[in-house]
Amino acid sequence: MKIITIIFAVVIAITAYAGFSNAQVTVPKLVDAGSIETIGLKKQTLCPVMGNPVDPKIFTDIQGQRVYFCCAMCIDQFRAAPGKYFEQARIDSVLFENIQTTCPISGDVIDRKFFTWYKGRGIYFCGEECKKIFDSDPEKQMGKLGKEEEKKIEKEKMKVENEQ
DSSP of 108-163, one letter per residue? Predict the structure, then answer.
C-alpha cells in the first residue's frame, strides 16, 4: 500500500511539473464586439526568421512588440516584412513581449485590462472607448501602433548623439 502511495505521489509531481514547464500564456482575445474568449498562446522561444532558439540580447522593438532573434542578421529580414512574421506568429499562437506604454489611439498610458489580439500582436489600450475605436477599423489603427515608443527612442538617440 505504501509503494502505491509513493508511486501515485511521483506521478502527480511529474504531471504538475510538466504543466508548469510548458511555456503557455493565457490572454483574452476579442472575438466580436461583445464577447471575450480565452486562448492559449506560447511565449516566444524561437527566432521568427530562422526558427533557432532566441538570444535574449538580440531583439528589435516594432509596433509595440519586442521580438527576439537568434542573430543580428535576422533583424533586417524581419523589419523588411514584419507582417509576414507577425502573421506566422498568429498562426503558431506565439506571443511576443508587449512593450507598449501608451495607447495607440489616445497616446495615454495603457491599462492592461483593455487588450486585444490582432494579427500576431497583443495590443493594450487606455480604456474601453479606445479599444472600440481600434476594433471598428483595426487596419487603419495599426499604423499608430508603436509610434509613441518610436518617438521616445528617436529622442533618446538624438540626446545621446548631441552629448557626444
Answer: SBPEEEEEEEETTEEEEESSHHHHHHHHHSHHHHHTTTTHHHHHHHHHHHHHHHHH
